[in-house]
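Quick look at the format.
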Amino acid sequence: MTVRELASELHVARSTVYRWLETGRGPKAFRLPNRELRIKRADFIEWFHKLGAGREIR
């Protein structure tokens, strides 16, 4: 997932996602050779469930 996709899924600003990732409060992420960040969907789902968030994710 891109940062934009993650932000859209959670209805937050991209700057919020970047802040979470910078402070270690977000899901695991990795950088592509072009320096863009990506999040594996499985890592996002695992992180989301650890938060105790109550809604379903597909």
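Next, a different chain entirely:
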Amino acid sequence: MTIRTDDSTTELDVVADFDGGFSWIAHPEETMQRASHALVVDGAVWVIDPIDGDGLDELLAERGHVAGAVVTLDRHRRDAASIATRHDVDVWVPDWFGGVASELDAPVRRFGAELAETGIRSQVVTRSRFWQEVALFDPDTATLVVPESVGTAPYFLTGDERLGVHPARRLWPPRNRLYGFDPQRVLVGHGTGIHDDAGGALRDALEQSRRRTPALYASILRGVLPV
């Protein structure tokens, strides 16, 4: 999978603009299609797992003032610290995450079941030594952000799926963690979000994950074998 490792920025690609926020992909040429999001609550903008890009500050300013940067997956530190520092705000990390705060070169604050006092709910998705992940749900806009366990980048999907479970979680999808949500939209950490029948796409991804595992693994294998 290709991924940008240099420190240069690029003109970002806004892939969704909705009432309550927007999403962008800073390096759309990457196979991983790393997506970032901004959720707006009462004029305060919370940037979720952000990757920097030219013009980002202007886009954020159009929505309000930046209140904080949020890390929702232990591997998604990305540019949260630099963006938070630039806007003189903190990086917010789930209160049970380990080994993340020490890697962030910015002030860190913790959150539990709710992100600050925004009304945005936090849901544990995966809690292990190797994978720490929370989902965020804004009930005012019915927006669900799942950073890693589901996605829409090609390597998440097989057949006619619009939303797929991460290849490493296909046999153990987080059904008990995500079944309780009926979102209007699902935003993901890799790929563009789902804005049409998002609840149906989420249920389909979770319910059919195991059955479709062989097809997904076969397609991934075909993609890495020499031709």
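The chain has one domain: 13-224.

See the schema section for token definitions.
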